[in-house]
Amino acid sequence: MKRIQNRFNNLAAMAKQIESSRRIKTEQRTGGESWIRGQQPRTYTSTSYNMDWKGYRQWSASVELLLNQVFGENSPHVINFNKTNLNHEYQDFEVRYPVFLAAKDDYENGYIFDVRSLVSAKVFSDELEQAEELIKKKHTTAAAVIAGTVLETTIRELAQQHGVDLGSVNKMNSDLAKEGVYNDAMKDQVQAWYKIRNNAAHGKPDEFTDSQVEVMIQGIRNFVADQMK
């Protein structure tokens, strides 16, 4: 979380510098068909733009990457940031800068993560119901794999929310505990659940029991409800 906030702040400072470098220059010029049939030269206004172009391109690429990582490539912020197709980068900046500020504000106030968490929690609940149905029909291995997938996805979501580097489930789990997202007891429980998932996925049904998977499903349900809120 701290690293993401620092990145937003750095890009906001960069945007201020780009904004202060912008200049519009207008001048009166003459030209065109100025000597046809004795007409006077036509006068027109020429407008030119100046800005820290290199800085803008760097800022734009960095913001796009950050928004994708934080909100997801299909989020409104990413879509709005990328849909500018104006004739000049000067105008692009005028459109993209407010989108960046809105995204920064939503991140700092937790709005986007609240929405994503609600959606994720609903999806995970449906998948855990499937796992419960499978365990009732004695399809224990399949139930363990589905529940384990929910667990893995939840850990990945939490890592993204709290600025933890993505990696293996065990590594993210340890890092989340270090960040204080949950305590060491929960870290050990997550590791135990994921061990059952791995045994199920690798065809080792003798390494776990039906009752262990039942407890695992309920435990993961409680974990999702507690963390994705």
TrEMBL record:
<protein>
    <recommendedName>
        <fullName>DUF4145 domain-containing protein</fullName>
    </recommendedName>
</protein>
<feature type="domain" description="DUF4145">
    <location>
        <begin position="131"/>
        <end position="217"/>
    </location>
</feature>
<dbReference type="Pfam" id="PF13643">
    <property type="entry name" value="DUF4145"/>
</dbReference>
<dbReference type="InterPro" id="IPR025285">
    <property type="entry name" value="DUF4145"/>
</dbReference>
